[in-house]
Amino acid sequence: MKNTFLISLLLVGIHLQCTEAQTIQERLGYNKNTKLLIVHADDLGVSHSENMASFEAIEKGMVTSASILVPAPWFSEVAAYAQSHSDADFGIHLCLNSEWKHYKWGAVSDPSQVASLLKKSGFFPDNGQWVAENADIQEMEQEMRTQIDRAIASGITPTHIDAHMMTAYRRADFVQVLLKISQEYKLPIGVDVKELKARYPELDFPEMISLDKLYGAGPEDYEKSLAEYYTTVLRGLAPGLNEILVHTAYDDAEMQAITVDHTNWGSDWRQQDFDFFTSDACKTILKEENIQLITWKAVQDQLMK
């Protein structure tokens, strides 16, 4: 009897070790050498152009997931699309900024209840540093929750959360709020959690999903060639759960007016993102490199039950 008990303990220990050793690919049902990739479009809701291009890139291109700016003016169009496309993979792009020159938005919450998040104009500030220096943490949490709740009430079933302009990663207490919201709403955070842990070692991180690598083009990549940057990323992709952040919109009069005086992540940049991730060249690279496209919904369904 004693030997049987010891053998049982040994088997349990071996099982736990095997489980802990599993890669995220294996936990999702893939071989450990699989290159998983989420192609993720940010900023849905910012404009009609952004919405239409992103919907097309999801339906006809290689974009597999997107996140929504709930406070932005064209949010209701995304909500209507989500209601008629139940398989669409949408997260909430938690927002504390309004970065464009003449095109602004403010809080979803009652402004009087989140005054520390708003400029005197009543809009969100254009940069994350202002938020980090001025935001009250209770008001920040209220606004984050209100944005998610507004999306759900509008018929959207969110699959993940992330942070617009990375602002909600700027303070340890901000991150603590995101961790709490992630656990309560069962929404993975679209971020490299290892980097957050390194930045905020004082925080107690629960066991949670983490991207192995998060890619996003910068101004220097745009100046050189976005297509070249994305090609290099795809050709060098390693096994694991990877994400490429893109911004898909048409370079039309609407986006040109919104992004005026804003070359970086502007209208032309967003058209180039759309062009690459709806191209035959991108499709060919994915096939040649044996890259498996995946959604945040698949991750959420399997790993956050």
Automatic annotation (TrEMBL):
It comes from the Bacteria. Its cofactor is Mg(2+). The keyword Protease does not apply. SUPFAM superfamilies: Glycoside hydrolase/deacetylase. Gene3D superfamilies: Glycoside hydrolase/deacetylase. Keywords: Carbohydrate metabolism, Hydrolase, Magnesium, Metal-binding. The keyword Transmembrane does not apply. Pfam families: YdjC. PANTHER family: CARBOHYDRATE DEACETYLASE (PTHR31609:SF1), YDJC DEACETYLASE FAMILY MEMBER (PTHR31609). This is Polysaccharide deacetylase family protein.
